[in-house]
Amino acid sequence: MTRLHLQLALDLGTLDQSLQLVQVAIPYVDSIEIGTPLLIREGIAAVKAIRPYVEGTQVALFADSKISDEGVAIARLCFEAGADTISVVDGASTNTLRAVRSVADELGKQVWVDLMYHSNPILRARTLAPYADGFVVHRPPTGFPPLLVEGLRIVDRPIRIAGGITLDIARREIATRLATSLTPNAGIVVGRAITQAEDIEAALQAFAHLCRGDEAI
After folding, report:
1. 5-211 has which CATH code?
2. Which of 77, 97, 155, 183 shows the smallest number of beta carbons within 10 Å?
3. What is the dihedral of CA 190, 193, 197, 200, to 10 degrees?
4. Domain positions in the chain
C-alpha cells in the first residue's frame, strides 16, 4: 500500500484548544490544517500562532483559505504568516488561480484546490492541474463510485480525501480501494474523528499506523 499523508483538520474549538491539540499531534501527522472555521474565527493570527509548533519538524502547515478571489492578497497574507500550503475553491477564475500560483512559486509554497462543489471533479481537476500541487476531494455519503476512483488515476496530481473520514472508512474504503490510485503526498484529511475522540492521542496513533502501513488492512 502506498504510504498515505495524514492531514489533521482543526475546525472546532478555540485557538488555545487547537494549540494544545497541535502539541499532541505533531509526532503523528504529516500536516496540520487550520480549518476554514478556525481561520475565520481567529484570523491570520491562527497561522502565526501555530507556526512555531511545526517549525523544525517535517509537519506542514495548511491554511484552508478557500480562496475565491483577491488571490494575490490572501495568498501572500497566509504564506507570510507561516502557511506552507493554502487552498483555492474549484470555482475560482483562471486569473485568480494563476495569481495564487504566481505568489506560491515566488515564495516556494504549495496551492491545493478544493473540489468540494464541482459536479465533475475529475474534469475540473484535469483543467486546473497546471495551477495546483494537489486536490482535496470530498467523499460522498454513499462512498466513492468506481468511475471516480478510476478517474483519479489519470489526474497527475496527488489527491487527499476529506469529508467525515473515520478510522473504519479509512480502513474499508480509502486504504483498500484508493491507495493504489494515490501518488506520493496523497492521503486523507481527518477532523472530528480525532479532535472529538475520547482519547485523542489513541486516535492519532491509530490513524498514523494505518497511513504509514503499520496496520494490516
Report:
1. 3.20.20.70
2. 183
3. -20
4. 5-211
